[in-house]
Design a protein that fits this description.
mainly alpha; 65% helix
């Protein structure tokens, strides 16, 4: 068994041990749904997103502002995870045009690497929240980083 296989197995064990944080009602209210981030990364404004989600525009604006504030940290953490799981996956990504779009792209790459290389069955959003610490604004890095 090669070194990469051992590292992949160790990462899979680590990811399995990381528990999805228990959300409170306050957490759900402060964390934007994935659709809001995807739309915003595509350039959709907070009012249109709010109308689509049936939420007040001020709430959506707050979600997007908070995520934008942490976007570079989230992006960097997600890229470190992607690199630790499958360094080749980073060759397929590049700047997406804004810090929010870059972070959304990095989270998608990380989730894809987890699902393909580690055979994780969690949703991309669960992986993004759990591995990067997105829920609490504190990046979580893979072991050894």
């Amino acid at each position: 068994m090669g070194g990469q296989d051992i590292r992949r197995r160790d990462l899979a064990r680590f990811v399995d041990r990381v528990q999805m944080p228990r959300e409170t009602t306050d957490d759900r209210e402060s964390l934007p749904p994935p659709a809001a981030l995807l739309d915003n990364a595509r350039g959709v404004g907070h009012r249109r997103i709010a109308a689509r989600l049936g939420r007040p525009p001020g709430t959506v604006r707050g979600w997007l502002h908070t995520f934008a504030h942490h976007a570079e940290q989230v992006s960097a953490s997600a890229r470190r995870w992607t690199y630790a799981i499958d360094a080749r996956a980073l060759d397929q990504t590049g700047p997406a045009g804004s810090p929010v779009a870059d972070a959304v792209d990095a989270l998608g790459s990380m989730a894809r690497a987890c699902r393909l290389q580690l055979r994780m069955s969690a949703s991309p959003w669960e992986l993004a929240v759990t591995l990067t610490g997105l829920l609490y604004g504190r990046p979580r890095d893979p072991p050894g980083f």
